[in-house]
Design goal:
Elements lengths: L2 H15 L6 H16 L13 H4 L2 H21 L5 H12 L1 H5 L38 H32 L7
Bound molecules: zinc ion.
């Protein structure tokens, strides 16, 4: 999936985990963090991303990075008023969301997320998700269509998450407690 699909899923998860009454600074931080984590395996860092796809898209490699960071966050959460458990687990979900999304390409090859233990691939192909053609400009008609299809598919998820959050906030009422 491109940055469009991963970002929209990250933003949808932020709607689900942000505490009521969060400031715009918290929103900006969490939204950017979730989008970054949802895109993390694709980040164009040396030895990472699409340069070493098998490595950067291995569930085990990502878990080696993810588990210690999550445990540190949970430790600080238990000691101080740092974030919240839903925020921490939402960040984990944003990161993990990368793999099923990449598995949705219609080429049907899936993602070999079990490297180095197995060559088995997670494969959830949907006919309308095609990969970008990097021989063309990102603004070409072909690539624009790739972005548009992802936006059309994932924007309703974000819209639904925003509506669900609104309904949840309304139920809580102005006192901040569930009515
Ligand atoms: Zn990817």
């Amino acid at each position: 999936m491109t940055f469009v699909g991963h970002s929209l899923v990250g933003a949808s998860l932020a709607q689900a985990t942000m505490p009521a009454g969060a400031s715009w600074r918290q929103w900006a931080f969490v939204l950017n963090l979730y989008v970054l984590l949802a895109f993390f395996p694709d980040l164009p860092l040396p030895g990472w991303g699409h340069f070493r796809y098998y490595f950067s898209h291995s569930l085990f490699v990502n878990l080696i990075l993810m588990v210690p960071v999550t445990l540190v966050c949970c430790y600080y959460r238990s000691r101080r008023n740092f974030a919240s458990y839903p925020l921490v687990f939402g960040a984990v979900a944003a990161w993990l969301s990368h793999f099923p999304l990449d598995a949705m390409y219609n080429h049907g090859r899936g993602v070999a997320i079990f490297w180095p233990f197995s060559a088995a691939a997670l494969n959830l192909p949907l006919p309308w998700f095609v990969t970008l053609d990097m021989s063309q400009s990102l603004a070409s008609a072909y690539n624009a269509r790739v972005f548009l299809m992802e936006a059309l598919f994932y924007l309703p998820l974000l819209g639904g998450a925003m509506l669900a959050r609104r309904a949840w906030l309304r139920r809580r009422g102005p006192s901040g407690y569930a009515a």
